[in-house]
């Protein structure tokens, strides 16, 4: 069965949220504020908040 290009793109996007290193993010999260994390990883404050929520659910 063939898959469409959109389905492949979605499956690749699920592998990593925001394309960042989660181990580095989790270590930095303990020491830095949300603003510093957003600047370091090139994310918005809302993205940092969402990422923190997703990590605490896991």
UniProtKB/TrEMBL annotation:
Name the source's superkingdom.
Answer: Bacteria
Name of the featured protein: RNA polymerase subunit sigma-70
User: From what organism does this protein derive?
Assistant: Salinibacillus aidingensis
